Amino acid sequence: MAVYTRSGRARPHGSGFELGVWYLMRLSGLALFVLALGHFSITHFIFDPANETSQWIVDERWGSVLWRTVDWLMLTMVVLHSFMGVRTVVQDYTHGGARTALTMLLYLTGIALFLMGTMAVMTLPFPVK
Amino acid sequence: MLAWAFHRISGVAIWAFVLLHVLDIWLVGANRGLYDEVLRFYASPVGRVGETLVGAALLYHALNGLRIIVMDFWPATTVFHKQLWYASWVVFVVVGLPGAYIILRPIWAGAS
């Protein structure tokens, strides 16, 4: 079981993979504070789900390379942050073969999801104007 | 302990929603008709209640996560970990209540 402090998981010692993950969680967390809360605000407070159709996504949300880049950045950050977060949960409650199997399954699912999201944001045609 | 438990529960819940949410946006290219049906569900009363819960989990996780980052990189603030937690709940209520009202209002105001 990982060590938890008043704040979160204690900073791992040394300079290995776990320390990298520790920093990654905090950096991607900061990015998502802006990206994910911004995304939720745009889709619920600026616009309303009642007016959001796939046509609206083609014409407005993903009508520019800039917004697609922002959303792809959010996809990258959220896949890293959420899957590495669940990895910590898995490693807290499992051990041995189950831990290895679940962690590998998690990595594969994360990669597949990242590819599907990348495919969606990159292959959807731009609006014909 | 409670802050940690809420952070973990909200985190796993958001992860589950991210799985669904990337799969549904994938449909925009793969099966647009089906994607429009998913979007109609998001706009329905049940969908709006669900989005309010996802939003609450996201807001708590974001605010408590920020508190963790502040204390990790500015250890002196750890003394005020409890005050920071209460402060994050104040922001949660001040931002969350109007937010929930905006999302849920169409249920009784009639869908636009």
Query: How many β-strand runs of chain A?
Result: 0
Work out the strand percent of chain A.
Answer: under 5%
In the predicted model, the low-confidence regions of chain B spanning at least 5 consecutive residues are none
Shape of chain A: elongated
How does CATH name the architecture of chain A? Up-down Bundle
Describe this structure in words.
The complex is a heterodimer of chains A (129) and B (112). With 129 residues, chain A is mainly alpha-helical. Chain A has a single domain, classed as Up-down Bundle (3 helical TM bundles of succinate and fumarate reductases), CATH 1.20.1300. Helices cover 74% and strands 0% of the residues of chain A. Chain A is built from 4 helices and no strands. The longest helix of chain A is centred in the N-terminal third of the chain and has 30 residues. The N and C termini of chain A lie far apart (56 Å). The mean pLDDT of chain A is 93. Chain B has 112 residues and is mainly α. Chain B has a single domain, classed as Up-down Bundle (3 helical TM bundles of succinate and fumarate reductases), CATH 1.20.1300.10. Chain B contains 4 helices and no strands. In chain B, helix 1 packs antiparallel against helix 2, helix 1 crosses helix 3 and helix 3 packs antiparallel against helix 4. Chain B starts with a helix and ends with a helix. At the A-B interface, helix 1, helix 2, helix 3 and helix 4 of A face helix 1, helix 2, helix 3 and helix 4 of B.
